[in-house]
Amino acid sequence: MSGESFNWHDFLGRWQEEWVPRADDDEDCGQTAVPLGRPGADEAAIAAAEQRLGRRLPPSYREFLAVSDGWHVDQTAGVYQLGGAADIDWFQDPYGMTRQYEENLGDNPRQEDVLLAGMWQRALRLETDSDMSYALLDPGDSDQDGEWALYVYKGWSGELPDRYPSFRAYMEAMYRGFHSDRVERPDFVNATTRAQDARVEEARLLALRGRYEEALPLLEEALSFGRPRSAVLLNQLRHLPAPCSSRGYGNLVADPRYLPEVLPVEAMTPARGEWRLGGDDHWLGMMTARGAARKTAEAVLSTMRDGTHRYAPPGPWGRAVAEARESARWGATDAAWRVLRDALPLWEAPGPSLIAPIGLLADPVLGPLITPERGREILATPRAGETGPAPEPVPDLDPPGLAWLTEPAANRRPLDGYRCVWVEGIDPARLPALIGEEGAELSAPTDPRKASWRAPEPHEREGVELWEDRAVVAVGRTADAWAFAFDGHSHRHLNKLFLSPAPAASSSGRAVVVWREPRRPSPGEHPAAFHLSVAEQGEELYAFTVRGSEIQRSGAIPEALDPTRLFRPGDAELDCERRALEALHTELGLSLPRFALTEGRLRTFTTRSWTRAPRAGEGFAYAYFVRHRS
């Protein structure tokens, strides 16, 4: 508080003047029938109380008593009445809370936990009427202004007490709670409600002008008073910088203006399988209770779950969204984001309760593009017809080339390898026909953090031979118009039965295959391997495989890709791999989109086998392990 002046007469007078019963109170409880306070205590009465207690009272509580000797707080299921100077007394821990809290301190307790454990025997009890709740001022928890912290303990809740830094802070919070409890009353209109509603509207306009940081405190204060629209506007400002979080948007799902943006966002949590409060029926019941048609909610949840939902707003913004999705669905996420960024000023709010295109978050292809940094850029961009300075663009996320494959990735296991097929100048949708298993089709967009990106083991699939090695690959297009099929979780060995898919992929253009197998320590030492093969018009042009110090090669390999130049004896494996990947980028123009493959949503299909059948006289063994829980 730092000496900040505060007028208790005006504050308490305004509270008394605005008082009305809650909407659920008895009808016969008149609006002016309840005196909240009492005449203030004179200095002699306050001094007498301090002499009785043996302590000088903290400043804000002392000033309060001089204006009103007690107060009807009327907390719902909590403290109802605060006593006056003659009523207060030491709590003295009649229920043995000190012992209980001290037992839970542990060996290295926090200072706030130590203060709380000692509070019960030090505290001054203020309430005279409550629902098993206590308002306790703690002289042992004080600040530089001499204010004592106030704790409210609800004995029936089993929760830790609520802490307020001073008596004044507590009373201001109770005043805001008084407003929140009555917000449903249509006749609860006064100077405070009008002022807070004006702040909500001011915050809405600030947010649309890109000045969301100025809007945040206005909405936070309005929300503490329970003002309509404050929560839903504030949730948008908090959701976009934290797109993986879950936010509720209340009854907006019942309004056809907002439903296309809001209902899919509400469905994100149950669609991810993270809804644990009674399953789909409970979530659907909640949406129905908020006014959404159950069939509509079921349909939206179904499309969110199977990855077929599409965010499709109207107008110029909608056309930009469609263009961005076409880029992102093949891996060009930076280009897609630039399209969205340029079009953001064209976004139009369907109504006054929406201040940002939150529907983007629910789109299975575009949603992953909205990182926290990009979410803040959205909020900082003027939109919906408002003007203001444009924010500094956030940097692109995809590095050029392939060298990023040597970096650790959160969704790759240490023993995973990677393998990829590139085909020059074709539509990626043609890849299943070129190298896919029989009947292969592109899947819906797939989350790389949840998908294994591998076909089931041969013994798990009927009609698949044990020697086969079919991969589940993510499909996309590079910036240089190479279609690619990438397996980032390869766990198979690059063995003598390997059959490069490059010739099959090259029937209409040049194709390149790279397979990187990491060092495997067991069973036995299995050195790292790196394979490259290049084909055109169905014929292999050149290839090499490096395993440890052994190199196998065929065809006329360009000097820039000569394995003896790239994999020099004595160099670290990682350096050799990086050098090879950089050469492939420089010589052939190969690249892969890191963000799309690690965080985005690309479509997948299952390839034909990357190994051939054993020939006569060739040995072959296949082993798998089943773990049984005891």
Give the N-terminus to C-terminus distance in angstroms.
62 Å
Mean of residue pLDDT? 91
What is the overall silhouette?
elongated
Supply Rg.
34 Å
| SS elements, strand count | 17
- Helix content range of the residues, please? 25-40%
Question: Biggest sheet: strands, sense, closure?
Answer: 8 strands, antiparallel
Strand order of the largest sheet: 16-15-14-13-10-12-11-17
Task: Write structural notes for this entry.
The relative contact order is 0.07. The chain has helices at 8-18, 43-53, 59-67, 97-103, 111-122, 167-181, 191-208, 212-224, 230-239, 259-266, 268-271, 279-289, 294-306, 315-328, 333-343, 372-379, 431-435, 502-505, 563-566, 573-588, 594-598; strands at 37-39, 68-72, 79-82, 89-90, 124-125, 127-130, 133-142, 148-154, 162-164, 417-424, 470-477, 482-490, 511-517, 529-536, 539-547, 550-555, 603-609. The longest helix is centred in the N-terminal third of the chain and has 18 residues, at 191-208. 33% of the residues lie in helices and 16% in strands. The chain is built from 21 helices and 17 strands. The radius of gyration is 34 Å and the shape is elongated. It is of the alpha+beta class and 630 residues long. The mean pLDDT is 91.
